[in-house]
Amino acid sequence: MTQTISGQAPRVPRRIAQVIVNSLKGGVVPRVGLPYITVGRDREVAALLHDLDLVADGGASFRFLVGRYGSGKSFLLQTIRNHAMGRGYVVADADLSPERRLQGTGGQGLATYRELIRNLSTKTRPEGGALNLVLDRWVSNVQTQVTLEDGLDPEDPAFVGAMERRIMDTMASVQELVHGYDFARLLTMYWHAYLEGDDEAKANVTKWFRGEYRNKTEARQELGVCIVIGDDDWYDYLKILATFLVGAGYKGLVILLDEMVNLYKIPNAVSRQYNYEKVLTMYNDTLQGKARHLGIIMSGTPQAVEDRRRGLYSYEALRSRLAQGRFSQDGLVDMLAPVIRLEPLTHEELLVLVEKLADIHAGLFGYMRTITQGELVRFLETEYGRVGADTHLTPREVIRDFVEMLDILSQNPGITVEQLLGSGQFSAPVKAPAEQDAAAPTSASSAGQDEFAEFDI
Question: Cα separation of 18 and 21, whole Å?
Answer without folding.
Answer: 5
